[in-house]
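Hi L.,

As promised, Membrane protein FxsA:
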Amino acid sequence: MRWLIIALLIVPAMEIGIFIWAGGIVGPWWVVGIIIFTGIVGVMIAKKQGAETWNRARLSMNSGQLPAEEIIDGICIFVGAVFLFTPGFITDTFGFLLVLPLTRNPFKNLIRAFIKSRLNKSTIIYRK
């Protein structure tokens, strides 16, 4: 919980610093345009990736399999879309890393390891 509070304080300050720095180089209106452009493109990519993941999950469930990979993909895409919707260069970078399939795998491995550690500690309760 502490890391979340620290991140909520540090990331916006870093974003503001980058806005000021980039605005001094290319101009403030270009910075605003880039932020809007990356947000729109990112959300379009997230929507496409989300639809593809949803279709793969449906196919897995229709064949009687648990869509575990698709669930982890969906978590990454959702978090990435939230980051892309948030204005800023740092959040956009993390958003694109989570949304694009090629760069999503390291994050999927981290999520898998986190879930396994929670299951081993019996902190996740699964009821059927």
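The CA atoms of residues 79 and 95 lie 7 Å apart.

Thanks again for sending the construct details.

K.
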